[in-house]
Amino acid sequence: MDQVTTLGEFIIEKQQDFPGSSGEFSRILSAIRLASKVVSQQINKAGLLTDILGAAGSENIQGEQQQKLDVYANDQFIKALRGRKVVCGIASEENDEFIPLNEEGKYVVAMDPLDGSSNIDVNVSVGTIFSIYRRLSESGTPVKESDFLQKGTEQLAAGYVIYGSSTMLVYTTGNGVNGFTYDPGIGVFVLSHPNMKTSEDGKIYSLNEGNFYKSSEGIQNYVKYAQEIDPATNRPLTGRYIGSLVADFHRNLIKGGIYIYPATTTSPNGKLRLLYECNPMAFIAEQADGLASTGKQRVMEVTPTELHQRVPFFAGSKLMVEKAVGFVETE
Ligand code: AHM
Ligand code: MG
What we know:
Layout: H1 7-13, H2 24-44, E1 55-59, E2 65-67, H3 68-84, E3 87-92, E4 99-100, E5 107-115, E6 126-134, E7 157-163, E8 167-172, E9 177-183, E10 188-193, E11 204-206, H4 217-227, E12 238-239, H5 245-255, E13 257-261, H6 274-287, E14 291-293, E15 313-316, H7 318-328
Parallel strand pairs: 3-5, 11-12, 11-13
Antiparallel strand pairs: 1-2, 3-4, 5-6, 6-7, 7-8, 8-9, 9-10, 13-15, 14-15
Bound molecules: 2,5-anhydro-1,6-di-O-phosphono-D-mannitol and magnesium ion.
Residues 64, 93, 112, 115-117, 208, 243-245, 248, 271 line the site of 2,5-anhydro-1,6-di-O-phosphono-D-mannitol.
């Protein structure tokens, strides 16, 4: 076998980036790695398991039906993080309130355990998104909501797992972005995409054009601009929208593009959640030389006021984000 770097080795190698954490931080990443393997295996089998596909019968805080695999993934990530004992609380898309864990833990995690889950029943890519912060309150005391309501600029690490044609884990600790592809034969993530950078400009735009008439004039004008023939290339931009943030973002990161979920008349703050969808993706976009904006400000500079807060989201190649934001910033 050729020389490969596994995610486990990489985490240990990079441990020195976090002086004073004495390996605790690495244990969080190891927990995420473990849970994502378990979830990946379950997702691959989803078509065979009629009892785990489909709705679980409960609704999450946004009133959306939870899919059974959402609940399963949520349980797996909570279980793995609880086992490592260094996390004092988790905020999850699937739980109305934050989940207190070990009071001695120094870190909090915000996560969307299975994003885009309406795609599972039709065998389309889904993902897990995570974000790690140092707690603000004293360790040894119960975790507080304010420990989670930190700006994205305070993230220590963030990443996503894409369960696609292969499973990949992509993460940053603020020193660039690295991607690891899962080899199910040997059960390890292997460094396949070191130091990922997105191109400064791109050709792909990704948004739900069904929302055209529910969007502002600026967004409508942006869509018209994207559809115009560019004299330089003799073609318009290419529209690509999977409806799975992780998959759309990941494709655009690699190929160059922009993902947009704007404010609409029915969702005045957009659909995506700041803490466990937008901030982690924004951290990765910026670390890959891209940008992430709400249309009014840098995503990571928004001061959160609630756990499940939503913000409009524009992320991807720098020039494309600047262009799109130019259409909406004065609205
Ligand atoms: P979810 O967290 O309930 O799965 O919703 C988030 C998903 C994103 O993955 C995706 O980009 C977006 O919702 C699609 O929304 P829409 O169907 O409104 O275009
Ligand atoms: Mg989600």
